[in-house]
Design brief:
2 copies of one chain form a homodimer. Chain A is an alpha/beta fold. The first copy, chain A, has 3 domains: 44 residues, Orthogonal Bundle (434 Repressor (Amino-terminal Domain)); 134 residues, Response regulator (Rossmann fold, 3-Layer(aba) Sandwich); 145 residues, Response regulator (Rossmann fold, 3-Layer(aba) Sandwich), CATH 3.40.50.2300. The first copy, chain A, is built from 13 helices and 12 strands. Chain A has a 6-stranded parallel beta sheet. The first copy, chain A, has a 4-stranded parallel beta sheet with strand order 7-6-8-9, sandwiched between helices. In chain A, strands 10-12 form a two-stranded antiparallel sheet. In chain A, strand 3, helix 7 and strand 4 form a beta-alpha-beta unit. The longest helix of chain A is centred in the N-terminal third of the chain and has 17 residues. Strand 2 of chain A pairs antiparallel with strand 2 of chain B, so a sheet runs across the interface. Chain A binds a DNA duplex through helix 2 and helix 4.
DNA sequence: CTTAATAATGTACGCGTGTACATTATGGCA
DNA sequence: TGCCATAATGTACACGCGTACATTATTAAG
């Protein structure tokens, strides 16, 4: 009995009121007699009635869902699962607090994703794009969405000549801090293993790296700037070049922890110890950063908070009649964390 | 123009047919003239029309979403992010292939979660419960759902006296393999650091551990069975007890990689090296297993496949009229992976 | 050329809710 | 008591689609 699905009509009959009154009670709209309210609630409870979410959304013309669009390449993890799960946790928390749904969607980065369709078909009310890069297909999909004044937000990626809302971390400063730390220990020939340049945050890291060196009056030496793709394997492969250059390297800044871990493993395979022979600073402060030996000195990125903030900003704009048109660009600060890999104790180890 | 939202009526007018014909063309239902089909599709394209997903679901009486319910404890990661992201990837892949939506939901493990409400309000058509344990509140919520013949599936957790569909891995066998490997190297006094007993997969690991020892004619020594909670910290804390027991331990089996990593760090802090002084086998084959030094010998669990399978089984039953009532219980096999932590080369290191 | 079967399309309505607008009840004040 | 503002509730319909059923067009068989 209580399991069967009941509808508004039955509740209205049982409570002896009209359907509209039931609706008002359930949505807390307009003035109403407390006694009526109680009668309706009692009837609803007795019939085990709850609003039909679909019908409700349909009538309202909103889906009640926030879409989170992830890059999906089968069997390949473009992003560290840490990045992914932390941002998602933040998004999840905010979405839950606002009583929205969280719809997970996957896109093929090599195709122009039809974001607008998600809105046209009313599957989502707003969306957050994760893991976007500047490659043409990605850019085009997002540009289309931007051209239609749709409420969306790109996470940790900037596009030139495109007016899109973003939430990001200050990777220029984060990288500056990391390199500064190495400089302060007296290292001058500091190399850099960066990630793929199609991510604006790679570009930002480079900017921070360069700024720190310039400020110290050190000329950039392009021969000690290496490139990976943020994967552990790419870090492991970079070990060849880095190992060959040990003679001209005092220390190395690596653009994320995964690459740093791969690199450290690669160097170890060649008999080279970190930080004794090469101090290293990573980036992200992922779980793994404190699981490795040596534990990584790294830059903590507030992924959780970024996810949360994106949702909050988007929902603010949804409730505001013409807020959709107002773009936002939030930048959160990173935090430098000293552990073992950067070789504070290098001299004594020698 | 093309951006504005159009509806079926407009398409019907432009194509010179009835709304029903438009609907049939778009859903590919019933026989129809090819010329009509083309006219309708052309009109839809011209008007930039797409089915309104909400209205469509509403009319059909189905949400088109699969719910994935995760335990949510703020700022605490109950599960390794590896577990979480792998299963989710598998679920995401399957859901996408079947053109369903993936709705992420969070529950408080200490409260009785109202799964039935998700169905009653039509938010989801089926659901997958991740990270459930046998604590009373969890059990009660799931039991209620089971009592209503709702299409759901519990991941990697068995409940006694409850008729629920499940997808799981064979952790008895996985643990048996792990311990067997240690036995084959001649170790006899093999300890076990297990996770929390409210997870049936902890119980299963224990069963596999015991079976392997019994088969080898070794008596169970309860004093070398330790307990953590699958977190790295709990592994780190267990190092105290393990270190004190080194005299009566030949090797140690740890119920997951995270605890193994924490334990290894804890032992290292006390000056004890793995595997030289204590060979260890982990469990999960998480990313971190091959990031640590030494790399972990471990048991690979097909998380991705488990997620995928759960969705496929559920959707099969959704399309079958009375398939909802048919329970399924799938068990996937694990794979043993030898790396360095189990000390194949122990003797030569000594 | 009929006739009947089947293809192709149209008509009409229901799905459960939100809400604009209409109506009735209530209370305060002169 | 009469009047009016406001509270409280009811009426009626739209939302966009799926689909059962009715109707008309087409084809094949006799």
């Amino acid at each position: 009995m209580a399991d069967s699905v009941s509808n508004r009509k039955q509740v209205a009959e049982l409570a002896g009121v009209s359907e509209a009154t039931v609706s008002r009670v359930l949505n807390g709209i307009g003035p109403m007699k407390e006694s009526t309210r109680q009668r309706v609630l009692a009837a609803a409870k007795q019939l085990n009635y709850e609003l039909n979410a679909i019908a409700s959304c349909f009538a309202r013309g909103r889906s009640g869902n926030i879409g989170v669009v992830l890059p999906h390449v089968p069997k390949v993890h473009l992003f560290s699962t840490y990045y992914f799960s932390e941002i998602l946790s933040g998004i999840g928390e905010a979405v839950r607090a606002k009583e929205y749904g969280l719809l997970l969607l996957f896109r093929d980065p090599d195709e122009v994703y039809d974001y607008a369709s998600l809105f046209r078909t009313q599957r989502i009310d707003a969306c957050i794009v994760l893991g976007a890069s500047a490659i043409a297909s990605e850019r085009e999909g997002i540009a289309k969405m931007a051209g239609q004044e749709l409420p969306f937000c790109v996470m940790d990626q900037r596009f030139q000549d495109m007016d899109a809302s973003t939430v990001a971390a200050d990777h220029v400063q984060g990288s500056y801090d990391a390199v500064k730390h190495l400089l302060e220990q007296g290292f001058r020939r500091i190399g850099f293993l960066n990630g793929a340049p199609q991510y604006s945050n790679s570009v930002d890291r480079m900017a921070g790296y360069m700024r720190a060196l310039r400020e110290a009056g050190i000329e950039i030496d392009e021969s000690i700037i290496y490139q990976g793709n943020y994967s552990r394997k790419s870090g492991w492969m970079a070990a060849d070049a880095v190992h060959a250059d040990l003679g001209k390297l005092d220390a190395l800044f690596v653009a994320n922890d995964r690459m740093a871990i791969g690199l450290i493993q690669g160097l170890r395979d060649k008999g080279c110890q970190v930080p004794d022979e090469l101090p290293i600073v990573g980036y992200d402060d992922s779980d793994a950063a404190s699981m490795t030996e040596p534990q990584l000195t790294t830059v903590k990125v507030p992924f959780y908070e970024m996810g949360k903030l994106a949702v909050e900003r988007l929902l603010e704009r949804l409730s505001d009649p013409d807020g959709t048109k107002v773009r936002f660009n939030e930048t959160l600060q990173t935090q430098f964390i000293v552990r073992k890999s950067s070789g504070m104790n290098r001299s004594e180890n020698r």
